[in-house]
Each structure stands twice: as C-alpha cells, then as structure tokens.
Amino acid sequence: MKKASKIVKEMTIGEVVHKYPKTTFVFIDYGLHCIGCPSAVAETVEEAAKVHHIDLKKFLKDLNRAVE
After folding, report:
1. Which candidate, 6, 20, 13, 24, places its Cα nearest to that of 48?
2. Are 61 and 29 in contact (CB under 8 A)?
3. Which of 42, 46, 49, 68 could be bridged to 9 by S-S, CB 3.0 to 4.6 A?
4. Is 15 helix (H, G, I), strand (E, B) or coil?
C-alpha cells in the first residue's frame, strides 16, 4: 500500500519548514535559499517549483523523503 505524502504541493514553504525543519536542507539543495523570507510565508511548494524551474514531482518526493 502506498504511503500518503505528508508534504503536498498546496502547502506553503513556510508551513513546510515550520512543520518539518529537516526539509530546510532540501530547499537549500534545490537553490531555494530564501526559506525564511516574507514571500516564503505565502508561496506554495508548487509555485516555488514553477518559478525556479524545478521538477515538482521529484521535489515533493525529496521533501517527503526528508521527513520519513
């Protein structure tokens, strides 16, 4: 049975980092260094991936792997 993802594309970066601090390193590895800036509070994981030309599916997989 497939395990449900904890982190989904609709979550904001701020929400993800607050709930799962271990994901900070994933964001940094993907070049998203502004995880504490004001835009991170409102920007979703999906929006960040689109703006930074990141493969959303792989990004979510890596984020969820970090919190397993």
Report:
1. 13
2. no
3. 46
4. helix
How is the chain split into domains, by residue range?
13-66
Structure letter (DSSP) for residue 12:
B
pTM of the prediction? 0.88
In sign, the C-alpha dihedral spanning 13, 14, 20, 24 is positive
Higher local confidence (pLDDT), 10 or 1: 10
Tell me, letter by letter, the H, E, C secondary structure of 29-62. Answer: HCCCCCCCCHHHHHCEHHHHHHHCCCCHHHHHHH
CA–CA dist 42, 38 (Å, integer): 8
Who contacts 2 (Cβ-Cβ below 8 Å, separation ≥6)? Answer: none
State mean pLDDT over 3-26: 91
